[in-house]
Write a structure and sequence with these properties.
The protein is globular. Helix content is 49%, strand content 16%. The chain has 12 helices and 9 strands. The protein is α/β, with parallel strands linked by helices and 259 residues long. It has a single domain, classed as 2-enoyl-CoA Hydratase, Chain A, domain 1.
Length: 259
Amino acid sequence: MPDVHLERDGAVATLVLDDTRRKNAMSPELGDALAARVREVARDASVRAVVLSGAGDAFSAGGDLAMLERLRAASFAEARAFMLGFYARYLSITELDVPVVAAVRGPAIGAGLCVALACDLVIVDEDSRLALNFASLGLHPGMGATYLAPRRAGPERAAELLLTGRRFTGRDAAAWGMALEAVPAEHVRPRAAELAAQIAGNAPLVVRALKKSLGLDRAALAAALDREAYEQAVSYASEDLGEGLRAASEKRRPAFSGR
């Protein structure tokens, strides 16, 4: 079963997404494990900073394709409600009152990249393969993509990445402001841990207050998530999503019909 490991180094807690067989694909089960670990960390007043990483050679390959296929059989209301709950599992990291540093080694695709962008700071593998590839699957973006990507990269770059779904590298992400730094793969976790330790060494009341002052606009994020869940429920009923999923499975370009 997918799991999320909790590691401690002094006042720094590290959460590690672990479903290595599927490159940490985002399933409800992995989301449940993350939300449970987040609750555990939130109850521990000795934690002053958190690192979020992925096990193996990937941060996250994105949404579980089998899950997306199952949702095609759901009603509009069922799909919309499911997606709102799905987002909440993973974006529970935004509810922590201490800073979270994403350590992105290897690919971070679609919703997986969104979870990294929801963190306070991002350290990325310079050669990581990254994408907001929802449109190339025939699926409206979710997991806060339409709020988080413009917040990081600016509206025009975010629009380009979301509309094309193209791949880009960790170096690109750092150049566009989507990540703080791009470093060699073997330095990602150590650099994220170093930053977290520096944060944890500062006055905790001030750091927690700064987290609020610098943090997400929760009303704007909630509005984006509500809109995304609606549009994703529409996408699940489309022929284009079926074609996108088949093309992904067959490793070919999709031929969308607009239906």
